[in-house]
What we know:
alpha/beta; seven-stranded mixed beta sheet; four-stranded parallel beta sheet; 41% helix
Amino acid sequence: MIKIFSDSTCDLSDELLKRYDITLLPLYIILGDKQYKDRVNITPQDIFTWSDEHKTTPKTAAASLDDIVERIKPVLDAGDEIVVFSISLEMSNMGNVIRLAAQALDAQDRVHYIDSRNLSTGIGHLVVEAAVMAQQGMSADEIVGRIKGLIPRVEASFVVDTLTYLHRGGRCGGLAALAGSVLKLHPRIHVKDGVMGAGKKYRGRYSDIIVNYAKDMEQELLKAKPDRVFVTHSTCDKQVCEKVCDYLRSLGHFKEVLETEAGGVVSSHCGPGTLGVLYIRGE
Length: 283
């Protein structure tokens, strides 16, 4: 059998993990001198509370070699193969640790590692696609080949509610953060070639502009792979989320509009209120 693994930055819901039999490898969230496992013993709200109290951004770190070996060894011992995803290697060392774990178990030929070149449900799209392929009986090599063809087609972007967390993490200068706060600017952060970059800046109340962000993608959304679209957010207002989901449903294009909550890694860097619409471009 082919088992699908992903690091915890894929931001898939517990329901989706269960539906597609996906196993998570948690990254670490470090708050001062305390270390936590993403999605295991810490929540985004814990992170925001600590960050606001200490006026700094938590550190994040890849899982340890022992953590990964402990997770994948029983699967390999059972005779199964593994297809495993990580956040972009440009953003984290997680993928390198996964490869080292495969080497430590002398299982490089049975642990098929994929650098997603993405984050959050940008990874999640690929993970779900791989799980569907595994359920259809495809071989690991077939899955890897098809997924590599999908990687450049994943569109991942977010709009942030506050520039504070990007500033604390060194991704936004002090004057830019101050100006953004005064002018109520909400930048669109997109992923391209495995790294995050800034795009269009929306101005005004977040609840007013967030649907406009989704509508700006309408032509691309209507040509997207129709299986699913993700609305992924970090403790975003429920009414705001529902507005975006309702708009996406109104397009009549997607079989599923899936709302998921961002885990600790995305939340640490982007802050509360962040929301993204993530999809796979059509062929």
